[in-house]
């Protein structure tokens, strides 16, 4: 069975010098098949799954302490690691300074 409520992990970054500034603009990293924008049609690649997107779904049901890999992913995204970024649909900081 599946849940009736949809919880989701969203990873965002900002170029703001002060991320606590209310005027800071936060930009979302989009994944290839993870649910996100409700207007986007679903990604069907059956019987396969994009593993990272699949893990993000399960991470939404637990804490980050139970999913330490998500902290490492965030670090790789902050460092603009090409191998990690290749797993994503879009990099909002492409061609710009790292978040």
Write the layout of secondary structure elements.
Elements: E1 12-14, E2 26-28, E3 30-31, H1 51-59, H2 69-78, H3 82-85, E4 88-90
Please tag this protein with its features:
two-stranded antiparallel ribbon, alpha+beta, 99 residues, LMF1/2_C, LMF1 factor
User: Structural class per helix/strand content?
Assistant: alpha+beta
Helix content: 10-25%
Major sheet: size, sense and barrel closure?
2 strands, antiparallel
Please mark out the parts with pLDDT under 50 across 5 or more consecutive residues, or reply none. none
**Radius of gyration (Å):** 14 Å
Instruction: Please write the string of helix (H) and strand (E) elements.
Output: EEEHHHE
Please tally the β strands and state the result.
4
Gross geometry: globular
Overall pLDDT: 87
Q: For the terminal residues, how far apart are their CA atoms? A: 38 Å
**Assembly type of the shown chains?**
single chain
Strand content: 5-15%
Number of helices: 3
| Lateral strand order in the biggest sheet | 1-2
- Number of folding domains? 1
Structure description:
InterPro entries: LMF, LMF1/2_C. It comes from Nothocercus nigrocapillus. One of its GO terms (cellular component) is endoplasmic reticulum membrane. This is LMF1 factor. With about 100 residues, this protein is of the alpha+beta class. It has one domain. It contains three helices and four strands, in the order βββαααβ. The chain has helices at about 50-60, 70-80, 80-85, and strands at about 10-15, 25-30, 30, 90. The strands form two sheets. It has a two-stranded antiparallel ribbon. The protein has a two-stranded antiparallel sheet with strand order 3-4. It is globular and about 40 Å long. The chain starts with 11 loop residues before the first strand and ends in a 9-residue tail after the last strand. The mean pLDDT is about 85.
């Amino acid at each position: 069975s599946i849940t009736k409520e949809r919880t989701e992990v969203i990873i965002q970054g900002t170029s703001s010098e002060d991320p606590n500034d209310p005027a800071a603009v936060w930009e979302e990293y989009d994944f290839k098949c993870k649910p996100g924008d409700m207007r986007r049609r679903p990604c069907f690649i059956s019987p396969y799954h994009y593993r990272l997107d699949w893990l993000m779904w399960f991470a939404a049901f637990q804490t980050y302490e139970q999913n330490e890999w998500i902290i490492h992913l965030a670090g790789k995204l902050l460092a603009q690691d090409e191998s990690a970024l290749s797993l994503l649909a879009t990099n909002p900081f492409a061609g710009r300074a790292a978040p």
